[in-house]
Specification:
By secondary structure, the chain is an alpha/beta fold. The chain is built from 23 helices and 18 strands. Helix 5 (59-90) packs parallel to helix 12 (225-231).
Length: 655
């Protein structure tokens, strides 16, 4: 080494740089090698999604903006390392002590970057996005997720595990080979180089001379959400999600501020409550709702279907997978233009059970302030003398459901461990047949009591990895464990239950609703892929007039409607429409939260809000978006409704 230091002319350019920068050289190698890794990964993803990249005319912009994002996050990693290695550069004898820490630091991050890029295609196939807050939230439940992955994703597990091993070996070998303990430069030059590298890292981390550092909104340019996501790298996307989870910022952070008075004025005017009296300042949307149902005290049963989008329902123009549901749709009140509020089960539970509007934050099922004294159908019905029950074939602690339910009106949780029998247990718990058998048992028991009952029954067979008993259905796909086959089995189990229910002691006194929590896989080249938010909704029961209802409606309209049908009057803070009443066309709307984008759709158009960007208005026709001039009033309504959720949560309005 000494000969090399004394004879710099005999070295190649890279060797000279290595000797000049000394201990800092390995950080430079980490930065450039990881930047190359991330750029190659992005390019391969773009080639895979070439049709959508071409449509956005974004090849160069995605690559260049992507390198800017990569440089930003790598600069943060490098900056912390530089602050430590600067000591070794200036005080040479300390290098040997810093070397192990530096090697671990850089190798760990290199492995994280590589690992998250390798699992990205699987996540895109499922959610049409890079790993984000959903990825983070799933990590909270290792037992359920590991069972699901082992059952249906063995190849992906092998690839991901192999990546961890290979990336670790590559990182250790590369960074060890590039370690240089001493710098050949003078003390003055070493000091200057340190200041230069630290300055470049600070500038690179911010990647902006403006008021705010770089963020996803700053580099977004396309109306295709996936194209904007490809600009990011998956480590950045997950890190951004973790930061958001920790802060849980208000909708105003993303979509701009709005005064409380204006928010309340807009959402009240948008309701279908003529002459409503809002007299409780602590619950400023709470008003008395008069039920239209003549018979009071009807039982209410919500059969919440996992991942059953309209595209799997034959009667809604989807695949011929639901013959039983299709038949039932001719026997009850069938909603053909119903849209989910989000893409997660907890978002569907939030909307159906509480009528709460969606926000870019987590569902209220998981937030701390809503664990008690938060309005729900269960709390209102319990106050009316109902027995409120949740039935689920898995473990009810998942997604914090049990805690939220027990704190907000439910007194009875019947999950998998409490089932009388389970003939087939999948990764997510009991099969839908076992679930419905338990539900039938519970309803027969409750029907003998002196209280009406409210029950939320949540299915799981139509969830990846799509496990269900053999020999129950004629497979639609040749491979058994597919979305289509699982949807068909879920329909089979539903049909069998409804046949049993019609002959039961509780049928004549019960209102049933069959509704999905969300679609199974939301994707598409738009800011909010609306066609994948359309879901089935069907109300059944003795006395329910068979009819097809084509009105544009939202998840949040179902709770007020069920309460009205059951003859339950009272004060509620819900913004949803009571569909037993006429809803003028100009008041019909649906609200959808897709990651950080929010859509407010009317019968004429849809306005999309994006973080820190101007609203956009489109015509939505034949599953296609056509740009329209901005509808300012509709944008105002959209902002008011999405901001209401945050304000209602923060201020405790929703009780």
């Amino acid at each position: 080494m000494n000969n090399a230091l004394n004879n710099p002319d005999s070295l190649s350019l890279l060797a000279r740089l290595k000797h000049f920068f000394g201990p800092n050289w390995v950080i430079i190698v980490f930065f450039t090698s990881t930047l190359l890794l991330l750029s190659c990964s992005r390019l391969m993803l773009m080639i895979w999604q070439a049709e959508r990249v071409n449509a956005s005319e974004g090849w160069l912009q995605v690559l260049l903006s992507g390198m800017r994002i990569d440089a930003s996050i790598l600069s943060y990693v490098a900056l912390l390392a530089l602050l430590v290695t600067s000591i070794a550069v200036l005080v040479r004898r300390t290098a040997k002590y810093i070397y192990p820490l530096l090697l671990i630091w850089l190798s760990v991050f290199f492995v994280i970057f590589a690992y998250l890029e390798v699992i990205t295609p699987s996540f895109i196939l499922e959610y049409d996005l890079r790993p984000n807050r959903l990825f983070v939230e799933y990590l909270i439940y290792p037992k359920e997720i590991s069972a699901m992955l082992w059952s249906g994703y063995k190849l992906e597990i092998f690839i991901a595990s192999s990546t961890l091993v290979i990336a670790t070996i590559v990182a250790l070998k590369l960074f060890r080979s590039q370690w240089q303990e001493r710098s050949s430069a003078s003390l003055a030059l070493r000091s200057i180089s340190i200041l230069l590298l630290i300055s470049l890292s600070v500038v690179g981390a911010r990647s902006s001379f403006g008021h705010r550092p770089i963020n996803p909104a700053m580099v977004a340019f396309s109306t295709d959400h996936l194209i904007n996501d490809l600009i990011l790298n998956s480590t950045y996307s997950v890190g951004f999600a973790i930061n958001g989870l920790g802060a849980e910022k208000s909708s105003e952070r993303y979509y701009g501020e709005m005064d409380d008075s204006e928010v309340l004025e807009v959402v009240r005017q948008s309701s279908n409550m003529q002459g409503a009296q809002y007299q409780d300042p602590s619950a400023p949307t709470s008003t008395y709702r008069q039920a239209t149902g003549k018979a009071s005290g009807k039982n209410i049963v919500i059969l919440l279907q996992e991942s059953l989008g309209a595209r799997y329902v034959g009667a809604l123009g989807g695949l011929p997978l639901t013959p039983h549901l299709d038949k039932l749709m001719h026997e009850g009140w069938n909603f053909t233009n119903l849209y989910a509020t989000g893409t997660r089960s907890v978002r569907g539970i939030e909307a159906v059970l509480t009528g709460f509007t969606p926000t870019p934050s987590r569902s209220v099922v998981k937030l701390s302030k809503s664990q008690t004294n938060f309005f729900s159908m269960a709390s209102m019905l319990t106050d009316q003398g109902y027995h409120s029950q949740f039935i689920y074939g898995g473990e009810s602690h998942f997604d914090n459901m049990k805690s939220f339910f027990l704190g907000n009106g439910f007194s009875d949780i019947v999950d998998g461990p409490r089932f009388e029998k389970i003939d087939f247990e999948a990764s997510w718990g009991a099969s839908d047949e076992d679930l419905y058998d338990q539900a039938h048992f519970e309803f027969e028991r409750l029907a003998k009591g002196d209280k009406p009952f409210f029950s939320l029954v949540f299915t799981s067979s139509n969830h990846s990895p799509y496990e269900f008993p053999e020999g129950k259905i004629e497979l639609y796909d040749e491979e058994p464990q597919t979305r289509n086959n699982a949807a068909k089995y879920a329909d089979y189990a539903l049909g069998a239950f409804m046949q049993k229910a019609k002959k039961s002691s509780y049928w004549k006194d019960t209102i049933f609703i069959v509704v999905a929590d969300h679609d199974s896989r939301v994707h598409g080249a738009s800011l909010v892929p609306i066609e994948y938010f359309r879901i089935p909704g069907l109300i059944l029961g003795e006395g329910i007039e068979p009819k097809t209802d084509p009105r544009l409606i939202s998840h949040i309209d179902l709770a007020p409607t069920l309460l009205s049908l059951a003859g339950i009057s009272g004060d509620t803070p819900m913004l949803g429409h009571d569909l037993t009443r006429e809803v003028p066309v100009e008041k019909q709307r649906a609200m959808m939260q897709y990651d950080k984008n929010f859509a407010y759709m009317t019968t004429e158009s849809v306005t999309v809000l994006q973080p820190e960007k101007a609203p956009l208005t489109f015509e939505y026709k034949d599953k296609k978006f056509n740009a329209l001039p901005l509808d300012k009033e509709q944008a105002r309504k959209a902002r008011a409704h999405v901001i209401f959720g945050s304000k209602a949560y923060d201020n405790g309005w929703y009780h």
